[in-house]
């Protein structure tokens, strides 16, 4: 049986405009990004001669719109594009429609009009920093919004009741062409020891999927006269807020305090398994998460991959991962550390795509609602703010 075509919809409070979209996630393939397409439904009687517009924007937020950061509300639009949808500037028949748009136009009738946006190739993906429980409502995030509103003109003041705002996601999947498996080694000489300690660490591959165990092979040749008292393995997430202050969050998202020891002159070959999961980090402040929609759970943020030549400063929040292997080495003067780092990627696998031709002609409508990340209160007006009020 063919899957049904799910369409997400949302209406303004005064029913003057409504937005219908066939998806909420739009994929960044580094060299290209899925276009944003949908249909705007208008009620000419409610419009009362006004025009209807649609806007695609990329917004960097810190704090809520109704709160201050050091006395200043921080909301920066990284990108915005606005189109007049009604009255249409060209005949419906002249435009190229997707199959979903074609189905919606036939189903919704003469007052439905298509819209279409393309992402520029220098925008970040959807990501947010998890707030601490005491900071509920304050958050740092890169979000994408599709907004529709009616007004006398594009720059005129807009009533909240005549505005509808939908949060969408710009996401990245693991690249099809994977890089080499990370491998690192180090040799450490010690005072009053004729021979060194040698450590080598290897991963099976460069890219791991969310929820997939990570196997790390560690080989140690302790030819020194020192004793290794413990081996600590950790997965660290580094989130750099590069847009406004270059803040950096470095959080451990998985760890193993092995308790393994290696006597002088001995060796160790062992595989350690780590599993970085959002479920084990829900109470940590500073964890970067993938953008969240509706009521489904989210996950640790995926690694950021940027197109060559794009400035990192415009990427909002850059996320990377590394595994840190730390040896605690005993000695006469106390303990010392020997460590190595292995960078890797944590991402989603590319999902199995369903061709539009395989979808049923029947359209199932689902209300489009927005929910903030865990620890964030929901805004009753869901960001429906007049451009003139920002």
From TrEMBL:
GO terms for molecular function: G protein-coupled receptor binding. It holds the Pfam family Arrestin_N. GO terms for cellular component: photoreceptor inner segment; photoreceptor outer segment. It comes from the Eukaryota. Residues 193-351 form the Arrestin C-terminal-like domain. One of its GO terms (biological process) is G protein-coupled receptor internalization. This is S-arrestin. Belongs to the arrestin family.
């Amino acid at each position: 049986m063919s899957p049904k075509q799910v369409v997400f919809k949302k209406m303004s409070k005064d029913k003057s405009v409504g937005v219908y979209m066939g998806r909420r996630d739009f994929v960044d393939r580094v060299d290209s990004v899925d276009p944003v397409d949908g249909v705007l439904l208008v009620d000419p009687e409610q419009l009362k001669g006004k025009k209807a517009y649609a806007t695609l924007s990329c917004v960097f937020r810190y704090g809520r719109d109704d709160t201050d950061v050091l006395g200043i509300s921080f909301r920066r639009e990284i990108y915005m594009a606005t189109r007049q949808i009604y009255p249409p500037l060209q005949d419906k028949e002249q435009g190229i429609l997707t199959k979903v748009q074609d189905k919606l136009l036939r189903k919704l009738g003469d007052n439905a009009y298509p819209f279409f946006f393309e992402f520029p190739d220098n925008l970040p993906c959807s990501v947010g920093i998890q707030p601490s429980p005491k900071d509920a409502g304050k958050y740092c995030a890169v979000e994408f919004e599709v907004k529709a509103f009616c007004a006398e003109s594009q720059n005129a003041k807009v009533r909240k009741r005549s505005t509808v705002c939908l949060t969408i996601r710009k996401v990245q999947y693991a690249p099809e062409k994977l890089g080499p498996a990370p491998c690192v080694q180090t040799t450490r000489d010690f005072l009053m020891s004729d021979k060194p300690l040698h450590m080598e660490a290897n991963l099976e591959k460069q890219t791991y999927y969310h929820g997939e165990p990570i196997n790390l092979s560690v080989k140690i040749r302790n030819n020194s006269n020192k004793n290794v008292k413990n081996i600590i393995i950790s997965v660290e997430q580094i989130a750099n807020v590069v847009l406004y202050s270059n803040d950096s969050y470095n959080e451990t998202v998985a760890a193993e305090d092995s308790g393994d020891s290696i006597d002088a002159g001995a060796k160790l070959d062992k595989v350690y398994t780590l599993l970085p999961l959002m479920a084990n980090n829900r109470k940590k402040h500073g964890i970067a998460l993938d953008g969240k929609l509706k009521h489904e759970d989210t996950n640790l943020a995926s690694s950021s991959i940027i197109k060559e030549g794009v400035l990192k400063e415009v990427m909002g929040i850059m996320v990377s991962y590394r595994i840190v292997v730390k040896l605690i080495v005993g000695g006469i003067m106390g303990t010392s550390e020997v460590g190595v780092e292995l960078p890797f990627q944590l991402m989603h696998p590319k999902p199995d795509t369903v061709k539009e031709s395989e979808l049923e002609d029947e359209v199932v409508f689902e209300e489009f609602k927005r929910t903030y990340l865990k620890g964030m209160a929901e805004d009753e007006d869901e960001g429906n703010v007049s451009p003139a009020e920002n």
